[in-house]
Amino acid sequence: MIKAQKHKFFDFIFLKYLYKIFKSNFHSVNIIEFENLKMQLDKLDKTKNIIFIQNHSYWWDGFIAYILNEKYFGYNYYV
User: Fold this and answer.
1) What gap in Å lies between CA 75 and CA 49, rounded to an integer?
2) Which of 19, 36, 61, 66 has the smallest C-beta neighbourhood within 10 Å, fewest atoms?
3) Is 53:64 a contact under the CB 8 Å cutoff?
4) What's the Cα-to-Cα distance from 35 to each of 30, 48, 55, 59, 72, rounded to whole Å?
5) How far apart are CA 62 and CA 73, in angstroms?
6) CB-based contact 10:45 (threshold 8 Å)
7) Do the Cβ atoms of 15 and 67 come closer than 8 Å?
8) pLDDT in tens, 14-41
9) In the prediction, which pLDDT does 16 show?
């Protein structure tokens, strides 16, 4: 298996790009029980792995999880 190499500069540029395309395609993103989710995630060890599972598969889903993780959760996330 090839080990992933993350680059902070690429993450920064990619996140700016995602914000731009999200703002042009979505009015808002609503998450049911967001505060409860954040509280549960805050209890977990951030050095451990976590899997985010969404209720349907659409190509935006991974990007939504990426943005939420960068903005609110802070896990070592890969799309």
Assistant:
1) 8
2) 36
3) no
4) 12, 21, 19, 25, 11
5) 15
6) no
7) yes
8) 999 999 998 999 888 787 888 888 888 8
9) 93
